[in-house]
Design a protein that fits this description.
The chain is an alpha/beta fold. The protein is about 35% helix and about 30% strand.
């Protein structure tokens, strides 16, 4: 997949303002964001086929602020994108409760574990029994969450992503961590049908809301859906969409401006 990059010059601002700005860009289709070490520049990457439809030369469309000035928008050759991403995201190691290490080699895919949303989901996975569970990792990126679930005892993990490079990266990391036999890794833009004990979805707010009825339909009674990838200001919209789909809020966690919502499907009265 070919990507284009929008480069912004950043002036003095609060961290929450940049998080909100990135979320708004994500709603337009941008997928990955990089801030320079000195904090003076933001690069936002978008699939070229989407970016070409946005009239991205217009700051009113691309979304600038008085502290963020759009200075360029240009194609990023596929091979250069991969090289830059891999340079910034070297192999990561995460300790598991049993003493093993989860190893992730990120290649042009979101979810190497450093972002607040991925970190919250990964930390929570370490705290609950996973043995025998069927898990969906929806929007798997590098595969870090699904692979962690498999290593922690899940019987079956279905991992899916819209990006072919993410799917390829997840397959590589599954082999690296010796859980390929426990994982069914697919490319697609909607979650595959199934009966899941746990659904993990760390993607954009609008997609979470759109797919909420699917999560509810595919979740086993008593199962949980863990949603992240959205900001504090989106909490109410997520809650309302969940309630409308028949899911209830069990728990919530916050890291900076980012939220993790744990939803569940209530057991029928006869089983409760």
């Amino acid at each position: 997949m070919l990507y284009s990059v929008a480069t912004y010059r950043l002036l003095a601002h609060e961290e929450w303002q940049e998080d909100l700005f990135c979320q708004e860009l994500a709603d337009l289709g941008f997928e990955v964001f990089e801030t320079s070490e000195d904090g003076g520049e933001l690069r936002a990457y978008i699939p070229t086929e989407i970016g070409s439809l946005l009239s991205v030369g217009s700051q009113s469309v691309i979304g600038s602020r008085d502290w963020a000035e759009l200075v360029s928008f240009e194609a990023c050759p596929d091979e250069n994108w991969n090289a830059e991403w891999e340079k910034e995201n070297e192999e990561k190691h995460y300790p598991l409760p049993d003493g093993r290490e989860l190893i992730i080699r990120p290649h042009c895919a979101f979810g190497a574990g450093h972002h607040e949303t991925t970190a919250m989901l990964l930390e929570r996975l370490m705290t609950i029994p996973m043995k025998g569970k069927t898990v969906l990792d929806n929007g798997c990126g590098t595969g870090i969450l699904g692979i962690a679930a498999a290593m922690l005892g899940a019987a079956k993990v279905i991992a899916t992503d819209i990006d072919d490079k993410a799917v390829s990266n997840t397959r590589e990391n599954a082999v690296l961590n010796d859980v390929a036999d426990k994982m069914d890794i697919r490319q697609g833009d909607t979650p595959p049908e199934g009966a899941y004990d746990l659904i993990l979805s760390n993607i954009h707010r609008n997609i979470l809301i759109c797919q909420m009825p699917i999560y509810a339909r595919y979740l086993r009674a008593g199962g949980e859906v863990w949603l992240s990838g959205f900001l504090i200001g989106d909490r109410e919209a997520i809650r309302l969409a969940a309630e409308e789909a028949g899911l209830q809020l069990r728990d919530e966690q916050q890291n900076n401006e980012w939220i993790l919502s744990v939803l569940y499907r209530p057991l029928p009265a006869a089983e409760a």
